[in-house]
Write a structure and sequence with these properties.
Strands 1, 2, 4, 11, 12, 13, 14 and 15 form an eight-stranded antiparallel β-sheet that branches. The chain has helices spanning about 10-20, 70-75, 250-260; strands spanning about 55-60, 65, 80, 85, 90-100, 115-120, 135-140, 145-155, 165-170, 180-190, 195, 200-205, 205-215, 215-230, 230-235, 245-250. It is mainly β.
Length: about 270
């Protein structure tokens, strides 16, 4: 359910940089095409400008967002290539610790090798994938990983969710009774699939998108995502191996496009 990717810019710096990039667009009467607003012409109408605007960012439907070289450097634009990778499908759930299987009857104070048991609820579509004996990674808040195993999987009762029972050895000093911890099962795929960094995917109300290199522009393109593994995500539709996409900052490109199409300003 990825590649190391650059950390996304904090929200306020993004707005600051975007303001610098787009500054001056709404206050100028002179434009790169040398025309003025005519009598009765509202400033909010789209003029469909092409090429580079004074702000350093332009947008054209069907072509995408175009940035000057200076603006690319200012925004820290990074581009990666779509490559085939073997992505592990992840089943994520929350595990609640509920008991310990003590292994040393003669010494109640010796907990070495003891198993900690926990249970969790699985998404319904994960039931066919989860099986006893599978490895489980239990993730503590410290980001340390404890290795466990699936002991059993139980079908949902009526409208409930399937229940999973997990055992973790040598964890009595780490996992406490009643504690809730995130866990996951990694299921490797047999074939490599097209994959990109998760940072390259824009999740919007209309679906998932990436900004594909389209000549000198970046064109927002719909994609379907599959399995995720660490920082990488599988792309099941919308991209081909060898395509180039923007890995950061896609949110800023989206804001530039929104301003051009829905912000009431010029369609730069």
């Amino acid at each position: 359910m990825t590649r190391p990717y650059a950390r996304a810019l904090p929200f306020l710096p993004i707005l600051f940089l975007l303001g610098m990039v787009l500054a001056g667009c709404g206050d100028r009467k002179e434009h790169s095409h040398g025309h003025d607003h005519g009598p009765g012409e509202e400033h909010g109408h789209h003029h469909g400008h092409e090429g580079t605007s004074p702000s350093g960012a332009s947008f054209k439907a069907g072509q995408g967002v175009t940035l000057t070289q200076e603006t690319k450097q200012l925004l820290g634009v990074e581009v990666v290539e779509v490559t085939p990778q073997t992505i592990h499908h992840q089943i994520r759930f929350t595990l609640q610790v509920f008991s310990e299987q003590h292994r040393h009857v003669s010494n109640p104070d010796d907990h070495s090798g003891c198993d900690v048991h926990g249970s969790g609820l699985l998404p319904s579509d994960a039931l066919p994938l989860a099986k006893p004996g599978q490895a489980v990674e239990v993730i503590k808040q410290t980001n340390s990983i404890l290795n466990g195993v699936v002991l059993s999987v139980h079908n949902a009762l009526v409208l409930g969710e399937p229940e999973i029972i997990v055992g973790v050895s040598n964890a009595t000093q780490t996992l406490k009774h009643g504690e809730f911890v995130p866990a996951r099962i990694l299921i490797p795929q047999s074939q490599a699939q097209a994959a990109i960094p998760q940072s390259a995917v824009l999740h919007a109300a209309e679906g998932s998108f990436v900004y594909v290199v389209n000549g000198d522009a970046y064109l927002r393109t719909a994609v379907k995502v599959g399995a995720e593994d660490n920082d990488m995500v599988e792309i099941t539709d919308g991209l081909l191996e060898g395509d180039q996409v923007v890995s950061r900052p896609v949110q800023t490109l989206w804001l530039i496009e929104l301003r051009a199409t829905k912000g009431g300003g010029h369609s730069h």
